[in-house]
């Protein structure tokens, strides 16, 4: 299976640069994964496709303002950091630009000295381990100095940081938003619950690998990045009870999907657990828990496009993307949504 098989033509003007004023007014392409049939709706119409007993799985991770702009001590040269993962206490794994100025021992000053970082090691893929020092509470300083780590295809900063958070974001730790969830409002979620749909919360802290292209020709040779996930006992029970009753498990976003598939045994039973997952889902994968998926439109040749192709078939997905381009859907993080539905 070749990476280039997942390429498609996307006009640059279809890459959404800003979120819509009303989260739930995005367009919704509904794709039947068995037949390939397509319907064009508005996102709040999702209620027409959900039914009592379904379990809707959401990822309650919260994006941290992980992008920091500082100055190299001594020279004043500009250095940009992206916080990827907290390793221990005040040591973080980071992506540093420009890398050639970021040797071990380099100190970077942020906010006139409110925060100081020292590079203590160079690790996999050129990432740096940085030890931070500061007075006060790290999260408060980060909120003051940091910017939202928007994807590289978004060309300007947001006026309102909260527009790159889901309305149910709870646990801080992501370097990117689980963007399928951005379409939900609190009111829409209440409406869905009132219908008798069970909402299960899981946590997966989204890493930078979400934006990394697949660089190998053969899909099977790609190695996924590691991301931390957690499922509480009560939430696992909701998912398992839905499956046992013959109801559907519908994930909001590929991160929720990867979480429950990582935590499931071969019989589709989801365990309450936490850990790191490197699960890579591509065509040929047999889903253990997931029945349907709410997702955004993904980058060409990306692992996320491969995941949705595993669920609905590459032919159905690539045709749906072709239709979405023709119908001028908005793509990527702030774009429109797709519901990959079942016949059931």
Structural commentary:
The longest helix has 13 residues. The chain is of the alpha/beta class and 344 residues long. Helix 5 crosses helix 6.
Summarize the model shown:
The chain has about 350 residues and is α/β, with parallel strands linked by helices. The chain has helices at about 140-145, 185-195, 235-245, 255-265, 305-310, 315-325; strands spanning about 25-30, 40, 55-60, 60-65, 65-70, 80-90, 90-95, 105-110, 115-120, 130-135, 170-175, 200-205, 225-230, 250, 275, 290-295, 335-340.
- Mean pLDDT level: 94
Distinct helical segment count = 6
Content-based structural category: alpha/beta
Return the string of H and E elements: EEEEEEEEEEHEHEEHEHEEHHE
Report on the biggest sheet: 9 strands, mixed
Report the β-strand fraction as a percent range.
25-35%
Radius of gyration: 20 Å
Question: Which segments are poorly predicted (pLDDT under 50) over 5 or more consecutive residues?
Answer: none
Count the beta strands: 17
Strand order of the largest sheet: 2-1-17-16-14-3-12-13-15
**Euclidean distance between termini CA atoms:** 30 Å
Q: Indicate the percent of residues in helices.
A: 10-25%
Subunit organisation of the chains? single chain
Task: Specify the overall morphology.
Answer: globular
